[in-house]
Amino acid sequence: MKPSIGSELDGIRLIRKLGEGATGIVFYGERENLPLAVKVLSPGLTNEPLIEQRFKREAAVLSKLSHPNVVAIKGASIEGQFAYIAMEYVEGDPLSAEIRSKAPAAAFCVHVMRAVMSAAAHAHEYGVIHRDIKPTNILLENSEDELPRVVVADFGLAKLLSLDEFGEDQTLTRRGRIVGTPAYMAPEQVSGISIGPSADVYSLGILMFELISGRRPFEHKRRRDMLRAHLFERPPALSAMPEVRLHSELEKWIERALEKEPADRFEDAGAMLEAFEALDPKALQFTVAGRNAEQEPAKSVSVEISAAERAEALKKKTKNPVPITSRAWVRGLVWAAGFGLLSAVAAIAGYSTTLR
Ligand SMILES: Nc1ncnc2c1ncn2[C@@H]1O[C@H](COP(=O)(O)OP(=O)(O)OP(=O)(O)O)[C@@H](O)[C@H]1O
Ligand SMILES: [Mg+2]
């Protein structure tokens, strides 16, 4: 039976539809008069060999998360063709709606970033990687206070929906299909290497970039170009944008989060938050760029990306490539070569002086 308004799922009455994303439909529901948000996953995604045991195992890990900025999981199950997750209901709008047409204040951006980093840091401590941090997954609870409670939804959901089987070399097998949002995906997610918490650090960097500038570092229309940009393109410099004014320490902090090599980024959200709190307090008083309400917001839905599509993105080069010297290992090589050359010059100089 297809879950619909009025029907019941495991004792939860589905009352109205809250919204629909690429991964499923979210309903407002009640169990014993307690409000819940119920995400029913699209059958197209679940009737793949989505192994019941695996779904339950992942869901059990997610239900262990308990943090004021993480949407609490209240249960998960598979009923026939449909898998669903019952969550804490958050009354309010997603961050995407809040920032669509108006420029948020710097204090609001800082409040959101702190909350989302704390949520991710908590999950990272439990070994959970979000994999899909983006404004539609950040909910702002209505409140009388000046700043809303910020709650992050869909932790680990992208993993639950992916068929991310890894071979011995920690690279996705040919069958491997991943779920994610191209505009926010870390390079290693695109290339299909096993990912760590620093993949969330990258998405958090994109989020901060977007909050400040009103645009994302990469805004390609075609999905393949977007995937390729994360791998090979250098993000535009925020300080070069006339409408943005920010402290160099904050710019460097964002650049570090957006490094192509995971090892060059903050290790996890906890380290990123720590570095954020250590910034010069003046760095948190930036000028946020205005939004262009006419501009069609770039797509930010999560999609399935096949192994073939990722392989294609890896092959192609781009018009605005990252200078090869920014790759960690090449940098090491350049340093070593430079050092070798200097030593040789010094040796020759020393030798010729002794000869005199
Ligand atoms: N726990 C929740 N409480 C209240 N509303 C929620 C909750 N979880 C999701 N929603 C709402 O349901 C809608 C659909 O969410 P869903 O996660 O399916 O899509 P999305 O995040 O917009 O896109 P995507 O499928 O790409 O993740 C969103 O507008 C969101 O605001
Ligand atoms: Mg979502």
Model description:
By secondary structure, this protein is an alpha+beta fold. It folds into two domains: 1-89, Phosphorylase Kinase, domain 1 (2-Layer Sandwich), CATH 3.30.200; 91-354, Transferase(Phosphotransferase) domain 1 (Transferase(Phosphotransferase), domain 1, Orthogonal Bundle), CATH 1.10.510. Helix content is 37%, strand content 16%. The chain has helices spanning 43-46, 52-63, 95-99, 106-125, 157-161, 187-191, 198-213, 223-232, 248-257, 269-277, 307-315, 328-355; strands spanning 8-9, 12-20, 24-31, 34-41, 73-79, 82-88, 92-94, 138-141, 149-152, 178-180, 303-305. The protein has a six-stranded antiparallel β-sheet. A three-stranded antiparallel β-sheet has the order 7-8-9. The protein has a two-stranded antiparallel sheet with strand order 10-11. A hairpin with a 2-residue loop joins strand 1 (8-9) and strand 2. Helix 4 runs antiparallel to helix 10 (269-277). The longest helix has 28 residues, at 328-355. The chain is globular, with a radius of gyration of 23 Å. The mean pLDDT is 83. Bound molecules: adenosine-5'-triphosphate (ATP) and magnesium ion (MG).
Give short descriptive properties of this protein:
356 residues; alpha+beta; Phosphorylase Kinase, domain 1; Transferase(Phosphotransferase), domain 1; 2 domains; 3-stranded antiparallel sheet; 12 helices; binds adenosine-5'-triphosphate; binds magnesium ion
